[in-house]
């Protein structure tokens, strides 16, 4: 499983939940090491490896090459990928430069594109490309963590709205192209804050729990071809919508 995150990864990797071998991808090597250490402390038998990378195509390609050859993943087949990175940009439109606007799209939308290509290539290497109609089976699940900005945006959020909505359309296009080959593509709209905590804010429905999101992603990855969820809204009970 390929992923960026903390509480979500804990659920997916823990032997009592997903029991998946995890490849963590993120920009900051120090934060990655800290995250892996924390995850291993709660599940010493979990398989968790780190691969520092940004969203540039060449760097993502190198990260996937390292995953292919890593001994921890020998004889294991890819099942799940999650594209979930921070992307926020608030600037008055007449103050935003063309360079800033296009860089936001390049890093976020281009990153989603590059991640998806690498994920699909590795998935088909592991499972083949036989279509479901020809007797093939489900190959795996690709989840994009989006936000409400994919549906509507506000003043001064031109780059943010353009990026989030573009990745939503990317997910829809991939679902329409690859569902018949057994690839389940999901766009999850996280409407509200997500914290890796189990405190009063989570119990009262003020803020989402990262582990609750992880359980939802695990449920999505277990869906068979007879019923696939493509898009869903994730929100805590008190969130206005």
Oligomer: single chain
Adjacency order of strands in the biggest sheet: 4-5-6-9
Structural class: alpha/beta
Rounded to an integer in angstroms, the radius of gyration calculated over CA atoms is: 18 Å
Alpha-carbon distance between the termini? 32 Å
Q: Major β-sheet, in short? A: 4 strands, parallel
- Low confidence ranges: none
User: Average pLDDT value?
Assistant: 93
* Structure summary, number of beta strands: 9
Fraction of residues in H or I helices: 40-55%
The run of helices and strands is: EHEHEHEHEHEEHEHE
Helical segment count? 7
Could you give a quick summary of the protein structure above?
The protein has helices at residues 7-13, 29-42, 57-69, 98-127, 158-178, 200-203, 210-221; strands at residues 2-3, 22-26, 48-52, 80-83, 140-147, 183-190, 194-195, 208-209, 231-234. It has 241 residues and is α/β, with parallel strands linked by helices. The strands form three sheets. It has a four-stranded parallel β-sheet, with helices on both faces.
Report on this structure.
The chain is of the alpha/beta class and 241 residues long. A four-stranded parallel beta sheet has the order 4-5-6-9, sandwiched between helices. A three-stranded parallel beta sheet has the order 1-2-3, with helices on both faces. Helix 1 packs across helix 7 and helix 4 packs parallel to helix 5. The chain is globular, with a radius of gyration of 18 Å.
Based on the model shown, name its key terms.
single chain; 241 residues; alpha/beta; three-stranded parallel beta sheet; globular
């Amino acid at each position: 499983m390929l992923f960026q995150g903390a509480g979500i990864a804990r659920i997916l990797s823990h032997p009592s939940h997903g029991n998946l071998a995890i490849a963590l991808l993120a920009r900051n090597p120090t934060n990655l090491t800290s995250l892996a250490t924390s995850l291993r402390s709660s599940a010493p038998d979990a398989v968790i490896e780190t691969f520092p990378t940004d969203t540039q195509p060449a760097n993502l390609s190198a990260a996937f090459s390292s995953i292919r050859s890593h001994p921890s993943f020998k004889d294991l087949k890819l099942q799940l990928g999650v594209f979930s990175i921070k992307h926020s940009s608030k600037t008055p439109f007449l103050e935003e430069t063309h360079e800033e606007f296009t860089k936001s799209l390049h890093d976020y939308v281009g990153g989603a594109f590059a991640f998806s290509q690498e994920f699909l290539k590795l998935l088909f290497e592991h499972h083949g490309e036989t279509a479901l109609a020809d007797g093939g089976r489900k190959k795996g699940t690709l989840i994009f963590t989006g936000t409400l900005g994919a549906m509507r945006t506000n003043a001064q959020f031109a780059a943010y709205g353009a990026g989030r909505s573009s990745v939503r359309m990317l997910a829809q296009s991939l679902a329409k192209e690859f569902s018949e080959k057994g690839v389940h593509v999901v766009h999850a709209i996280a409407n509200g804050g997500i914290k890796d905590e189990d405190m009063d804010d989570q119990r009262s429905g003020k803020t989402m729990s990262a582990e609750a999101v992880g359980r939802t992603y695990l449920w999505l990855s277990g869906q068979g071809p007879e019923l696939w969820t493509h898009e869903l809204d994730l929100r805590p009970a008190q969130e206005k919508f």
